Amino acid sequence: MLPSYQIRLVGFLILVILLGTMIHGFFLYKITARTVEEGFFSAHNRLRSTWEILKPAIIVTNGISFLLISLALLVVTTLSSHRLIGPVVKIAGRLRDLAAGRLDLPPLRLRADDEGQILSEAANQVQETFRQRLQPLAALRDALAAGKEPDLEQVRAVLDQALAGVTLSPPAPGPSPEGSRPPAAGPAASTAPTSASAGKAGGN
């Protein structure tokens, strides 16, 4: 069974084709009726009989064309969207496995003609990076389970390797540009040297 997004896409495109077929039939009806009317204006009965002959042909032709185009559109849309949606579903499933701790899975591989190769490589890189970081922790856990007491330096080295470059909280905001500027000198600061100079002059 097709996924819901493919069903919506195919339904939308079929609706567009249906509207196009209806518009085509409307204009074909108008053009044919006018042509027949101009050619057989003096023979009303022949005009009626001619249109009665053409009308079933127009309906059948438009119906068959609509069905064939809809079927072709269904096949093409399913195949083309599967190259894009299929890899996205695979990568999403792999990321859920990584979130659950499944680091023992083989690298994700997509088909050569699938889209999303970059995302697949990124998911494999994340898996390999976390596996390399957590392997020493797993070995340390096994050692503790076996009754061995690792020294503090070994534990610290394992933790440093596992948490190297890991950021768990957003960085603190830096000082604003206005706060980093030195305060401007006020009028009192600028007049203080002048007052001191005046005092010295008076003393002299």
Automatic annotation (TrEMBL):
GO terms for cellular component: membrane. Residues 82-135 form the HAMP domain. The keyword Nucleotide-binding does not apply. This is HAMP domain-containing protein. One of its GO terms (biological process) is signal transduction. It comes from the Bacteria. Residues 177-204 have a biased composition (Low complexity). The chain crosses the membrane at residues 12-33, 53-76. Coiled coil: none annotated.
